[in-house]
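Example record

Each entry pairs one chain with its bound ligand, zinc ion.
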Amino acid sequence: MHLLREGQFSVAATFLSEMAEKKAAEKKQANTANATENAASILDIDEVPSGEVRKQFATMYYILHEMKENNNLLPAIQWARDNDEALASRGSNLEFELCRLQFVWLFHGAHEQQGPTPAGRQAALEYARREFHGFLPRYLREVQQLMGAMAFSPNLQDSPYRSIFNNPSAWSDVAHSFTREFCSLLGLSADSPLYIAATAGAIALPTLLKLQTIMKAKRTEWTTENELPVEIPLPPSYLFHSIFVCPVSKEQTTDENPPMMMPCGHVIAEESLKRLCKGSRFKCPYCPSESHPREARKVFL
Ligand SMILES: [Zn+2]
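Structure tokens for the complex follow.
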């Protein structure tokens, strides 16, 4: 699955065929020996992504290739239109983002790379006339900006619309939006989980090695399960949800021991709450308010 997501189709194909060979060999062995004993160890080929998923990722890479290598947004726009209902239900702006970039690209003289030309402006305006009316209910302001910018046409660089027409990251932004939306319609995150886990691990490694050295030198051991004695900072894109540490027990809350908010607004872990109240009214450890445990509400992070 990781290989498919990274666009390594031939490596994935080799991997799959070698797995199938291994499976066939093990099956043969299992048939000659005791069949039931080896059955559990055989890789289940059904867990491998189906041909349909493979086809989807091939489509995704074709569209990305056209976008990045040939500045051709049309396959992406077509895909967004074919999936407009699913995208709209996610509140996605993808189709408009793509069409706006197409407008800007046409305006700049398309593949001729000559900068703004009268012919480019004409092509962009024709494109807008043909394609933009469907966007008006939702993107009136953005469309007005594009049209307003035309008045500055020979000198957009000094206009308030500079950032729309000279955005160096426009193509990579739109490619990223496309990948994210495409994966989300397949029920997948934008990045491969294996890639995320391995990268986060590589970032954490120096801290963990240092920790190991210190523990060896001090002859101490860290035994708390599922928790590290030091914080390991990760870049913001690697933070997926907030965490809560109970101020009473100093433990991080979990699904089994969730954060609970008392009527006064203070939050502690459920286990701490149970210990404090013993089933009856109790005083909040952080303010003078008293409350009953049944008034506490679970906090979802
Ligand atoms: Zn309180």
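The radius of gyration is 28 Å.
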